[in-house]
Amino acid sequence: MVKRPFSKSAGIHTMCVHAGEGIDKETRALRRPIHMANSYELPTDIEELIEVFSWDHLDKFQYTREHSVTPRHLEERLAALEGSEDCVATASGMGAVSAVLFTLLNAGDHIVASEACYTGTQKLLSAHIPRFGVNVSLVDTTDLEAVRAAVRPETKAVFVETPGNPLVYVSDIEKIAEIAHAAGATMIVDSTWSGLITQKPIDLGADIVVHSATKYLNGHGDALGGAVMGPKELMAEVREGGIVHLGACISPFNAWLIMRGLVTLPLRMQKHSANAMEIARFLQAHPKISQVRYPGLEDHPQHDLAARQMSEFSGMMNFSIDADLMGCFQFLEHLEIITHAVSLGHDQSLIIYIPTMFFFDDMVEFDDRQKEKYTEIMGEGIFRFSIGIEDPEDLIRDLEQALEKV
Prior knowledge:
Blueprint: E1 2-3, H1 12-18, E2 22-23, H2 46-52, H3 69-82, E3 86-90, H4 93-104, E4 110-114, H5 119-128, E5 135-139, H6 144-150, E6 155-161, H7 173-182, E7 186-190, E8 208-212, E9 226-230, H8 232-244, H9 252-262, H10 265-285, E10 289-293, H11 303-309, E11 316-321, H12 325-334, E12 339-340, E13 350-355, H13 356-363, H14 368-378, E14 381-386, H15 392-404
Parallel strand pairs: 4-5, 4-6, 6-7, 7-8, 12-13
Antiparallel strand pairs: 1-2, 3-9, 8-9, 10-11, 11-14, 13-14
């Protein structure tokens, strides 16, 4: 494989096209082929064999669980895009989160984390990590004083998801990184909802960034994957402890699909963000909508922070309508273009209704104080809305006709 000359100082559009790419030696194809092999012939030269089994030589391969050709190409591109020293691709977003936490944390350690975050992460932090002797403090990371108060001498990591799922809250990465580093802790940011292009956590002081590559990075709704980005030495630990030992390795085919999706990421994120802004303003003005939460709106509680921290506001929002439970599902039933489905960051618009009591009973582990707080925020329930790249006029017409029937 022949790598093209490439500078990491290139623009984001150029990096999305060229980072991790090369010319196939045998065919001169402009795109690297998918290498589906799970094993590689080993050299008999002792010195070369040592290199193969070393994490210092990631261009030499032995077994796909450790790392392999196509996932390595994806890692090279993602590291360039995020501005990190290295990247570890994983089988899913939760594979990325788990790999980081199980690599960094030991019995007796303490972690401070966003209480309102993706349900899989929240359950991992509240129900599973504590079983291994790790102490967890779930706090509102939009409140800097709450973060500062939660830090202890044994705090090993601070984990922030921003923008946060499903409430689209925005946390101050730079200020929280300062708090974490003052305590000698590692700052981790789940930046999935930013779509990578709109937010640069490493530039703001984060040590590690994780993404569910299933979402915006893939962008086509046809692959599962995750990514961990950070310092080379730490990524070697994550690769061995979180991937080789725990097994969350990405398949070469999924890596190739995500690699393909990344080519159009900047264009898609511009469209997601522009569509979302237009739709948020439509919903905000509609008489049947009781609230809209989108960082691009001036009445979002962290709008000013989002405007400083993000170059665009991405494509995620939530809203509520003036209707009972049956009315909310009636609204979903009448949507014609927008699809009632989980996941997000696809080319097509996806929406799901989250009743507040279901959120508490099934999706998260909250105490009574947290339940009271988020009941006030969510009301009876919210629609989590992932705006796609369709024509915004068509999406607005679809929302309008469905709302008329409620």
